[in-house]
Amino acid sequence: MMSICVTDLFIYPVKSLRGIRLERAQLDIRGLEDDRRWMIIDDNNKFVTQRRLPTMALVQTQLTDSHLILKSAHGECAIAREYAGKGAPFSAVIWGDNVQVLDEGDAVSAWLSEALNEKNSGEQHVNEKNVTRQKKWRLVRLANQPRPMSKPQYLGEQTHTVFADMAPLLMANQASLDALNAALAAKGETPVPMNRFRPNIVITGLAAFAEHKLAGLMGQGYNIRFGYPCERCVMPSIDQMTAEKHPSMEPYITLRSINSMPAYGKGESAKPANPKAAAFGENAYLAQAQSCLVLVGDKFQVLHDAS
User: Domain residues for 35?
Assistant: First the structure.
């Protein structure tokens, strides 16, 4: 087996918007620095992703020392990294969690609503005067109260996330993508890039889907534990450059046929295999309290025992 190596690092400052490729990133128990620190909510204060609004894939993100910059065909929108609003914290919902958030304001909401509604004609509703209008979307950040811990039985007692679905990190294996693309090509389908799966850390040096059999990886001065395989949804069927969905749900259908969800967990937390679901990547976390620096080119050794 060749050495296991980090080949790519990605963060997604706003949940479900386009990500940023990095050469180095600080990692702590919440994940990579600046990853999923903002999210978009609807008028029911519920989180929104590409599953519902595919055009989120078209909005680019950029970080400067002072601002988050959003870019689309409608121009740019700048949000101060230090909260500049005067709003009070309020409750929003992400999956099963109620979190306290701060709103980034009406001007940001107006910009987002224009950028995201262009192709999402289904996201409309009729008011009391029977006038159809586009929905409004709002950008929020976490307030001072932390998000409740998700799945500590798999992701560690000290782990926290901001607006990631469940785990602080998503680790992906390049060989697994290569195997998927070979299977797609054999069916006459177009291969897909890694951005369909929105990983944080991409590695080489493992056989395809071997990541599901490991407890984690040991780096230089830090360990990353694997919690459980990432069960995929329809999002990989969305082209991240065009926001178009594949009409036959590829690559999801092919992925499910070659790598369905394996069994995971132990004892009362054990989950059986699910052949009706597809897996890609590992939900993971930093197994230490102190932060560390992760760089493209970092080498890993296999961690077989998570105890």
Answer: 4-125+132-303
